[in-house]
Sequence to fold (548 residues):
Amino acid sequence: MPGNVAWRSLSPATEVHVAPHGQWLQTLMSQPADAEPQTHIIIWLWEDLVPTQTLLTWERLAEEGKQQAVTEWLNTLCQPLVQRLQLRPQDTLLVGAYSRSPASVFGTAPSVLARLSNEFDHQLASLHQRYPSLSNLHLPLWLQRHGYSHHFDSRNYYLMSCPFSMTGLVSLAEWIAPLLHRLHHPAHKVLVLDCDNTLWGGVVGEDGIAGISLGQDGIGRVYQAFQQAVCYWHSQGVILALCSKNGADDVWHLFDRHQGMVLTRQQITAAEIGWDTKSAGLRRLAQQLNVGLESMVFWDDSELERSEVRANCPEVTVVTPPSEIWEWPDALMMLTALHRHQHSPDDQLRQRSYRAKAQAQEVQQQLGDERAFLQQLRLAAKWQPLAPSNQLRAEQLTQKTNQFNLSGKRYQAGELALFAKDQGDVWLASLQDKFADHGMTALLMVRPLNTNTALLDTLAISCRVLGRGFEYWLLAQLATALMAKGISQLVISYIATDRNQPARNFLATLPTHPVAADVGYVPQADEILLSLDLPLVSLPYLEFYTHE
Fold:
């Protein structure tokens, strides 16, 4: 249904084109290989895809035969998706399938339909590991959350080949919108929560542990459900922090002693508990976590506190909770600012890394000597080339790294794959110390310009591992690899932004000089090219590292 008002939630930032009914394959495969990156949303209805006779045939097979038949059929169905991404890895595919009935419209073959749906999810998850830009829309989950009764319209289905009602189309667009948004806008890293009348009902400093509402019947169950939603975001890699006007001992005593608490002290990475303004607390949290204020989402029950933060920390995303507290758990679960297009295993490593960072800061303060501190850390680093298994993490590093990002360039997974295939090398590096395994926290993109010169297109390092000389170790590894290929000059691409001062400071420590001649690369208007003579470079901090 092209031009339908239901697409309004998609159209402000997206130009929507609707393929003719039944021509998804022709539309998908007709795009030229060199066209601009595109996002294709493919929505399948099982009733349209699988003939009833096929289902009945599958139903009569033995269990092993059913599984084999379903798997082979789905392999054929998904093959064009794979072919498309192999031809155009810069594209993104969002794919979903569902049935019009919560049970089975086929009636005679419900078990086969359930098997089909489960195997479809399994295959998409497997394909996503190889092609991170292919994702599941999870439409059965959307229908489960929003209900079947008002989302389908038989009249639309038979007259216009659209099974959805107007309500269903609007709901579907709203379900897809956060996924599209996250393709080009990184999700926020940190969820900052108030405590009193947010994590529990009442004021712990006045009501005491026994007087608050949490976990009992009625409203106490709502606060507990809200905490469960908080835990969900923690499981998705979001950093949790507290910013509360309270006594710290009262808050932590409740965390440790109240049986209704779902959230644990160990899940909280940082906290500002005291009597200062919330904006001041948020700024200290940002400094402690070494993140920008724009990475934060703030949830507080008080409109006064929310207004104060909006006025003094406009970069922070301040949530206005629903007026009815019963709606809070669902509102938090569906919070667009936290939704990730994809979820990386390194998200959990990031949480442990931020906690380890606080421990390391304590040790550094105790020692008071940088060299003694670095010697104690037992730093171990390694790097690896771009591969299907780490493409998602590579994309995250280019999209989300701001403070130490020399060029500030952003790439999607498909673009990184194309760069590695046709232009040069993409490397990821990981770091481990005695406090934590920080995972893959750095990305380098380099390509040859001529026989003895290479361009460092991108060097991005997560802010959580700065202060360890990691950037010098990375440059040393790159220099060794390039000189082994006969390359002696490294041209560094640098674009100044309002947030990459740490990268600028690093660049100032290197013996660079302006590029004196044409090296076969035309810089952007705001791009600065600096040259580094690799054989002459002597770098600090390398003695503190072991590497593989």
